[in-house]
Amino acid sequence: MVARVCLVLSITCSLHLPFILEQPSSSLMELHPAFRWLSKQFKIYRIFVWLGAYGGGSPKGTWLYSNYKELLSPLYLPLPKDKVWDAEMSTKILVLTKRHQKTICIMSVNSDGTLSVSGGKDLKTSQHYPILFGRTVAEVVMQNHESIYNNVYKRRRGLQSYPSTKNPSTTFNGYPVLDVL
Predict the structure, then answer these.
(1) For residue 174, how many other CB atoms are within 10 A of its CB?
(2) Model-level pTM?
(3) Which superkingdom, per the lineage (predicted)?
């Protein structure tokens, strides 16, 4: 699956189009040969984000990757101080809010001494992106759409002929619609 994602991202980068890719903090994607190849061919930026900072039920650390650093920089938020998270955030065993306690993960030691981690009854509540995170990403993209468009246009100029901006059927919000090469 990583190879497929990297193939799509390489096409996206070749066309100078922006992307944002999210991976959990425990992801090994960066070690995959296809991702290593992609990061050698194109400049890929990353930032660590806590989804708990966007109203998520657990701290849930995640990596965001993009070929446009302008899309990542505004997305960093510190964890809120009004919530009390589990003492060891990386385990995500319990999340305490002002009203109730959620069991996200359960850690135990097996009879052979190995550590076992399994999902708790409230694990499903942590798999959705917080609404505030989605809104923030959308706002960042909209705030940067003009500079992204200009960057795409400058880098792709000469590769194809662009439609006239005078024809309303070939424009979107006054910008020419870009064809896929």
Answers:
(1) 7
(2) 0.67
(3) Eukaryota
**Residue 173 identity:** N
Q: How close are the terminal C-alpha atoms of the chain, in Å?
A: 24
| Domain-located, residue 171 | no
Whether residue 168 is contained in a domain is answered as no
pLDDT digits (tens, 9 = 90+) for 106-123: 667 788 887 666 667 766
Q: How far is CA 60 from the centre of its chain?
A: 13
What residue has token string 């439609």? 163
Residue 126: inside a domain: yes
Domain of 20, in residue numbers: 2-131
Which comes out higher in pLDDT, residue 51 or 173?
51
Locus of tokens 């359960």: 106
The number of domains in the chain is 1
Using the structure block, give the residue that is written with the tokens 């190849």.
Answer: 37
Length, in residues, of the chain? 181
